[in-house]
Recover the amino acids of this structure.
């Protein structure tokens, strides 16, 4: 496949346990096989603001909802503008970027606890925050999500309660509706992995046409 000049920017979103990690890597392998150059990345990042966010998410550090929203946004700006390895630099050099979570998460998780217009404006109107070409929302019921989370070993993060998942899922639906439908795809993630991946391939193929 011929590499376009500018890379494509694909974001995966979903409530916890939806299988983002698995599907990101399956899509990466597919795109590589098509001859594209691909980098997978995630938010919160492993840079200083991202590390601070991890400490806040684990409960180790206390942050107010507005502080959290601002920190996620700051982490996102740094993620975009970092020389060479930042999202903007990668896309400009023709590399496709697949990102695990992005501003849709900030709107869904932090929006309701703060002020949605403020969070939206800070993210969507920021000249240093790139808008994705495609957002794939892996959709899962809170019940299925909890079952998957419980199967995984390790500490639960502060957001992983059933009520919270229910609210966040509803919030994602409402947030995603406010974007250009051509850039948003909601995928039923409760199906077998191969079936979900096949649908993701088909969706991705459309943006590379
Ligand atoms: P992450 O480590 O990506 O785990 P998961 O595999 O569940 O996606 O998730 C980090 C947590 O950060 C997750 O519970 C959602 C939350 N989050 C926000 O609240 N706002 C944001 O803007 C982002 C990017 C993540």
């Amino acid at each position: 496949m011929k590499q376009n000049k500018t890379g494509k920017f694909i974001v995966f979103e979903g409530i916890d346990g939806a299988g983002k990690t698995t599907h990101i890597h399956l899509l990466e392998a597919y795109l590589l096989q098509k001859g594209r150059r691909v980098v997978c990345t995630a938010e919160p990042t492993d840079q200083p603001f991202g590390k601070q966010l991890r400490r806040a998410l684990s409960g180790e550090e206390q942050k107010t909802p507005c502080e959290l929203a601002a920190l996620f946004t700051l982490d996102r700006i740094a993620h975009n503008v970092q020389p060479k390895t930042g999202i903007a630099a990668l896309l400009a050099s023709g590399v496709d970027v697949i990102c695990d979570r992005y501003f849709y998460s900030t709107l869904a998780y932090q929006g309701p606890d703060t002020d949605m217009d403020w969070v939206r404006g800070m993210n969507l109107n920021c000249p240093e925050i790139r808008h994705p070409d495609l957002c794939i929302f892996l959709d899962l019921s809170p019940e299925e999500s909890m079952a998957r989370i419980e199967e995984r070993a390790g500490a639960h993060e502060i957001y992983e309660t059933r009520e919270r998942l229910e609210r966040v899922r509803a919030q994602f639906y409402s947030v995603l509706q406010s974007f250009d439908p051509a850039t948003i795809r909601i995928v039923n993630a409760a199906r077998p992995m191969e079936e979900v991946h096949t649908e993701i391939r088909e969706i991705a193929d459309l943006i590379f046409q």
Remarks:
- The longest helix spans residues 65-81.
- The CA atoms of residues 139 and 188 lie 5 Å apart.
